[in-house]
Design a protein that fits this description.
two-stranded antiparallel ribbon, binds glycine, binds nicotinamide-adenine-dinucleotide, 2 domains, Rossmann fold, alpha/beta, globular, Dehydroquinate synthase-like, alpha domain, 11 strands, seven-stranded mixed β-sheet, about 350 residues
């Protein structure tokens, strides 16, 4: 069965289709265009891209294959992709298909937003993280050594097509990374969902049919509500950044090659839940619930916060996109399904993190 949700952004509204095995019929889910550019990475190409291209009918499809991993989210890759598209004479009425995880989605979406001043694109996410989060909502971008996602755009896709069967080939490490963003929704927006996750974590990790579709649909519905209300993160959308102030800093200080994004988010959520408890925003029982769920993911979120690492993190956190003035913005849990934005000076953040 295919579930369809809608991101209702007026003239830029688009559907999210979720179902098992729907990748095979991808061309029939898309608008008719004479030329498509398929952007994917080497791993996803081996599993799904090559077959898609081999069976493609009715229009031209040009594959562009990127190296896998976070290191691909760079200006250099963007230049390579758009140059290749110019060489292929890709015109404005063509479209991009972003087939892969969040890295491919963010880079391909950014290319779509700038190529010939903007062409259409479709998100076809193949990791759990991308299926529950990054493919929805139109955030695109690349990393710089100074910081994560520091250059990018808000640029909505024409459609999101989620084939849950693609998760069967996803390595467990990346499945757990996706679980980070799933847990995030439970903490920030939906306590019933959080208790559902507590009861069903084993079924999710074993990709039990039915359960995994329900989880993805629930996450996309929660994200849709937020994006519709605050597309460009003027306020409400910031809630999606729980755990991310520390996560993005940790990814940047470790040169984007030690932790996956989801692992960094699990570590960030653990620290930021402890910060919320220390500030009296949540009770010890609720902190325990959050920590138990994070640990049930199978990833150990403990981090040895040495003085050097703490200073490195604080340095990166002062460049966080959400900051105001000379304060660092943290989105902290503030009760079941609720968050609060807490602004701390560097000195206050240092003191608080040292006390944990
Ligand atoms: P990823 O894109 O690097 O994918 C993880 C790995 O899994 C890669 O090696 C990839 O080749 C492989 N892979 C992908 N699909 C596969 C499949 N079906 N079978 C086998 N292997 C597969 O990482 P990710 O966790 O999907 O995404 C992380 C990125 O997403 C980060 O850069 C993060 O900043 C970004 N992100 C963006 C948003 C947003 O709103 N735009 C939200 C959250 C995260
Ligand atoms: N993943 C955060 C956002 O989309 O706003």
């Amino acid at each position: 069965m295919i579930q369809t949700l809608e991101i209702n952004l007026g003239t830029r509204r688009y559907p999210i289709r979720i179902g098992q095995g729907i990748l095979a019929g991808l061309s029939s889910c898309l608008d008719s265009r004479a030329v498509w550019v398929l952007i994917t990475d080497e791993t996803v190409d081996e599993f799904y891209g090559k077959e898609l291209v081999a069976k493609w009918k009715g229009s031209t499809i040009h594959p562009i294959i990127l190296p896998p991993g976070e290191g691909t989210k760079t200006f250099h890759q963007v230049e390579t992709i758009v140059s290749r598209m110019l060489d292929l004479n890709v015109t404005r009425d063509s479209g991009i298909i972003a087939l892969g995880g969040g890295v491919v989605g963010d880079v391909a979406g950014f290319c779509a937003s700038i190529y010939l001043r903007g062409i259409a694109y479709v998100q076809v996410p193949t990791t759990l993280l991308a299926q529950v989060d990054s493919s929805v909502g139109g955030k695109t971008g690349v990393n710089l050594p100074q910081g994560k996602n520091t250059v990018g755009s808000f640029y909505q896709p024409e459609a999101v097509v989620i084939d849950t069967e693609t998760l069967s080939t996803l390595p467990r490490r990346h499945l757990i990374s996706g679980l980070a963003e799933v847990i995030k929704y439970g903490v920030i927006l939906d306590y019933d969902f959080l208790t559902y996750l507590q009861r069903n974590i084993g079924e999710i990790l074993s990709l039990q049919p039915g359960v995994i579709e329900d989880v993805i649909t629930r996450c996309c519905a929660l994200k849709a509500e937020i994006v519709i209300a605050d597309e460009r993160e003027a306020g409400l959308r910031k809630v999606l950044n729980y755990g991310h102030t520390i996560a993005h800093a940790l990814e940047a200080v470790t040169a984007y090659d030690t932790y996956t994004h989801g692992e960094a988010v699990l570590i960030g959520m653990q620290f930021e839940a402890q910060m919320a408890r220390e500030l009296g925003l949540i009770k010890p029982d609720y902190l325990n619930e959050i920590q138990s769920l994070i640990q049930a993911s199978g990833f150990d979120p403990r981090l040895d916060l040495t003085a050097d690492l703490l200073e490195g993190l604080l340095g990166k956190m002062t460049q966080d996109k959400k900051n105001r003035g000379d304060t660092i913005s943290f989105i902290l849990p503030a009760g079941e399904g609720r968050t609060e934005e807490v602004l701390l000076t560097k000195k206050e953040a240092r003191g608080l993190l040292q006390r944990l």
